[in-house]
Amino acid sequence: MRRIEKRMQMLPIFGYNNYGDYLKENPGEFNHLFSLIEINVTSFFRDTQVWNYIATQIIPPIIASKSETEPIRIWSAGCASGEEIYTLAIILAEALGIEEFLARVKIFATDIDNDVLQQARKGVYNVNTVANITPTRLNNYFNPVDNCYIFHRHLKQNIIFSQHNLIKDAPMSKIDLLVCRNVLIYLNIDAQIRALARFYFGLTDKGFLCLGKAEMLPIKSTHLFTPINLQNHIFTKVPKPEVDQYLLHQSLGTPPLN
Ligand SMILES: C[S@@+](CC[C@H](N)C(=O)[O-])C[C@H]1O[C@@H](n2cnc3c(N)ncnc32)[C@H](O)[C@@H]1O
After folding, report:
1. Residue 43 CA: which ligand 1 atom is closest?
2. Quick one: 196 and 161 in the same domain?
3. Interval between CA 173 and ligand 1 midpoint (Å)
4. Cα separation of 7 and 14, whole Å?
5. What is the pLDDT of residues 50-97, one digit of tens each?
6. Residue 171 CA, ligand 1 centroid: distance in Å
7. Domains: count for the chain
8. Cα-to-centroid distance, 124 and ligand 1 (Å)
9. Which pLDDT belongs to residue 254?
10. Is there a single domain that holds both residue 55 and residue 180?
11. Is residue 43 a part of any domain in this protein?
12. If you average pLDDT over residues 136-149, what whole number do you get?
C-alpha cells in the first residue's frame, strides 16, 4: 500500500478508486505499478550456510542417484536479477566439472518480473554485487569488463530464462532441485498453497525443495513435503501414494484428474 500510495502521489491521483480508473484507461501503467510492488532484493550465496548445505548434502545425492549421462534439472523460481542462478551454476560446475556441467545440467531461471529477468539474462554485476564471491570463483566463473563482472558465456548456455508466474503457470518438469527462496513470503497463504502444489508436480519423486530462511510450508501444504533439513528450509516430496490427491488438486485450484 505504501508503494502504491507513493505512485499515486507521483502522478498525482487521489484515492484508490481514481487510481483504479486510471489503470483501466492506461494499461501501460500496470508495468509501473508492477515494478514498484515487486521486491527483487537478492545476492550471490545469500545465506552462505544454505549454499554450503546444498553443495555438500543435496547436490552429491542428486548426482549419485543418476547415471553418468542423465540430465540434472534445477529450477530457480523467483530468480530476480540472477545472483541465485549463477550461485547454483557455480556449485554445480564445481561438483561436476565444467565439461559434465555443460553436458548434463539445465537450470530453469524464472521470475514474474521481466525487467529483472533481462538483468539476469545479461549476467553483468558490479564490484559491490560480487563482493560475496571468493576471488577464486570470481576468477573461474566471471570475466572482468570495465568495472563489472560478467558470468561466463559458455556456462550460461545451460540456463533457460523465462517469465513465469508461480501461482498460475504450469511448473517446469522433472526437477531435481527447486530453489524458491524469499518469494513465498510475499504471497498470501492461498497463493503459497497453489505455488507449492505446482512445485509438487514439477519435482521428480526424489526431488528437493529449498525455501528461504524466513519461509515455512503453510499447514495445508505439509502433506506434500517432508523436511529433511529444517535449519536450511530444505524439503523432499512425500511419495505420491501417501498424498491425498483430492487435497492436492484442490490446492492447485483445478479439479482432480482421473
Ligand atoms: C526477494 S526476490 C528473491 C530472489 C532470490 N530468490 C533470492 O532469494 O535471493 C523475490 C522475487 O520473486 C519474484 N516473484 C514475486 N511473485 C512472483 C510470482 N507470483 N511468480 C514468480 N516470481 C515472483 C519477484 O519478481 C522477485 O524477483
Report:
1. 9
2. yes
3. 19
4. 10
5. 999 999 999 999 999 999 999 999 999 999 999 999 999 999 999 999
6. 15
7. 2
8. 19
9. 60
10. yes
11. no
12. 96
> How far lies 94's CA from each of 54, 135, 185, 251, in Å?
12, 15, 30, 37
The answer to whether residue 101 is domain-embedded is yes
Tell me, yes or no, whether 79 and 127 share the same domain. Answer: yes
> Of all atoms in ligand 1, which is nearest to the CA of residue 46?
9
CA of 80 to the centre of ligand 1 (A): 6
Distance CA 257, CA 181 (A): 29
Quick one: which atom of ligand 1 is closest to the CA of 167?
19
| 120 burial level (CB within 10 Å; 0-12, 13-18, 19+) | buried
Task: Please give the residue range of the domain that contains residue 12.
Answer: 2-37
Judge if 120 and 24 occupy the same domain. Answer: no
φ, ψ (nearest 5 deg) of residue 35: -65, -25
Q: Do residues 27 and 122 both lie within one domain?
A: no
Q: What is the CATH number for 119?
A: 3.40.50.150
Mean pLDDT of the 203-216 span: 96
Q: Which three cell numbers stand for residue 254?
A: 483445478
Residues 73 and 103 in one domain: yes
Ligand 1 pocket (Cβ < 6 Å) reads 38-42, 46, 78-80, 84, 111-113, 116, 164-167, 181-183, 186, 212
Query: How much is the pLDDT for 37?
Result: 78
- Asked if residue 258 is part of any domain, the answer here is no
What does the pLDDT average to over 193-222? 96
Going by alpha carbons, the residue nearest to atom 25 of ligand 1 is: 113
